Amino acid sequence: MFKKFFEKQASYPKFKKKKFFCQTFCVPQHIQFYIKEDNPKYSYIELLEYKAKRCEIEVIKASRYYPSSQMCSECGYINKEVKDLSVREWICPVCRVHHDRGVNAAKNLARYGLMLQ
User: Fold this and answer.
1) Does residue 89 contact residue 108 with C-beta atoms inside 8 Å?
2) Residue 59 — φ and ψ, nearest 5°?
3) Per-residue pLDDT, 11
4) Which helix (H) or strand (E) segment is 62 a member of?
5) Residues 82, 42: Cα–Cα separation, whole Å
6) Is this structure's pTM higher than 0.90?
7) Is the model more confident about 36 or about 85?
């Protein structure tokens, strides 16, 4: 059931870029069960790394504790109130920039990956 979904998600590194930034995270137990049932050899991250390697793309992983969605991508302020996953949008109290949780996390992960080089 989930096998095709995760394989499709892992195929996205086929872009022309040579680096792919992601954050390791704890996959819920019920989803891990479906991943392992369909493909017992690989986790989602392992599948992503395998596909990226075939396309000569470097996968750069941030720790699961890196505050990618809590950190303001403009000023770097870490907003602890955004830990609640139901908060999808927030305004930085320091620089007053409006953030969408996913877009903000993507910007922070890209900056993190580029800093490591």
Assistant:
1) no
2) -100, 120
3) 58
4) strand 58-62
5) 32
6) no
7) 85
